Structure formats: C-alpha cells, structure tokens
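Predict the holo structure. Ligand: dinuclear copper ion.
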Amino acid sequence: MRRGSIVRILGLAAVFAAIQAVVALVFKWLPTSASRQMDRITFVYWFATVICIGIFAIVMAVIVYSVWHFRVQPGDETDGPPIHGHTGLEIGWTVVPALLVIAIGVVSAIVLSQNGRAGTNPDHVTVTGQQFEWSFQYPDQKNLKTHELALRLDHATRLDLESLDVIHSFWVPEFGQKQDAVPGIHTHIIVTPTRTGDFTLICTELCGLGHATMRAAVHVFDDADYAAWIKKQQAGGSTGSPGAAAFASGGCGGCHTFKPANSSGQIGPGLDNLAADAKKAGQPLDAYVKQSIVDPNAYIVPGFQKGVMPTTFGQSLSGQQIDALVKYLTGTT
Ligand code: CUA
C-alpha cells in the first residue's frame, strides 16, 4: 500500500475517533459514582470504551477509504483482480482483537474479585425483599430493623440479601452493582460508599404488581451522623405511637395511602375510609381491619386483586403490634 493511502486512512480514523469521543464524553452515560466498587466498574467501562472507539474508528476509516478509492470507474466492465487474501493482515486482525478481548477479560476479572472483597472488618446488614418492600436488619446494632438503609462513609458493608417470596433485585444506581435476592438462596453484595448523601434503592427484578413502587431510601453518613441515626432508630425512629411504628416497620405505606402516616402508596386500597369499607364488607370495623392485616385474601376491596398483599403480617408483627396497628388505622389511639 502506498504511503499516501495509509496517511489518508489514519486521517479518517482520527476523524471517526474524535466523533465517538465527543459522543462518549458529552452525554452523561452513567450516574456519578458513590462507591469504590462503582469507581472500579467505571474504569472497566472506559477501558473497554476506549478500545472500542479505536477499533471502530479504524474499521470505519478502512471501509470509507475503500468504498471511495476502489469505486468502479465509468465504463469499466472488467472483473476485479483475483485476490488471495493477505496472510499478514489476517494474522494481525485475529491476534490484535484477541489480545484486546483478553485484556478486557483480565481487567474485568480483577475488578470483579476486588469488588467481591469486603476487607477485614466490614459492617453487616441483612437486606430482606418482599412484595413490595425492603427491610434492613443490623446485626452489629442489636439487630435493629429499619425500612431505610444507612451505610457508613468509607466503610465496607456486606449486605446479605434474602427474599421472603419471589425474586427481587438490589440496585442503587450510584453504587454501580446489582444483586438478586432469591428465596432460599443466600446472596450478598459489598458496598463501600465514597460520598455522603441520600440515594434510592430500586428493585430491579420484575416481581409483581407493585414492582415499580418497591423502593427504599438509602443514606450514607459519616461515623458521627451514622451513630446518631442508629440511636434515633433504636429509640423508635421518628414515628410516634406504637401503631404508627408498626405501620412504618410493616412498610404499609409502600402500598397504601394513609393520611396520618403521610403515605401515598397506590398498590392496595387507601386506608382513610376504613369505616365505609368495613360497612361494605358487612363487618365490624376493628374485626375488618384486623382480618385485612392477618388474612388479607379473606375479603378484597372491589377494584383490587387477591394475592397481592403479603400474608405474612400475622407472623412478622406481634399480637401487640397488630392491636396497636388496628387502633392506629381506625383512629382510636
Ligand atoms: Cu421487588 Cu421488583
């Protein structure tokens, strides 16, 4: 090949690379990282992207140059010359991509293994998914149970995931990782937050009618704020009465609208007109509310479906909590 051709192809490649670099850099493809794991994943992402930009630019340059340079001349009806291939070129375009793919594989494997390591003394949180809410238990904090996840800045936390019913999946976009919560299987994920702030845990596995609402608040605190938050939660959080606390710990607001709790869930029936609903069901108010909590399929408010609300509240809430919850919902606290 003549030297001029190579210079032209390289010039075209530079143009294509520049266009792709603009597309890669101008748009914000990923959320701003908030964890060490996501920093590593972002590195892999850019490592692979730069390689892809290089390959794509060269391929496009060769195609455009060939289409232009070797186009048929007017009136030329002859066959093209018989070509036998080019051994050197073929070895080159086999070996170079193989090396690049191996490089991406090695870098990914290293990052995967680093991200799987929790270090010597991680915090622990058990994350439980259930239709359609998340709950968190802190074995290092006297088994505190909450409906919001709090993590310490710059400390690795091992999150052990479990599910009470179907497959859910843990995803905080700024942490850069996803992990399924599967009934009967133990899965875990390591998160080492790198900036404080509020994030959102999103269920990223289609798990039923309320999937889109299955979210939880995530806070990253420095050590002092974390200790204060834990203390506040252990003291009963910001909720007032035992009924309100049961409402919060049951995650009821995720699915039900209830003005006193400031909740606006739309999965299940609203709870602001329970007296009217009980009348329609032909039951005394207290009995109706209690039955709806412990045996939700016994009576379904018209317009809603059976089998959506968890049937586990009779076990997961104590008798006292259920009584308090009934009082809270019926406005007799
Ligand atoms: Cu749980 Cu989607």
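The mean pLDDT is 90. Residues 202 and 215 are 5 Å apart (CA to CA).
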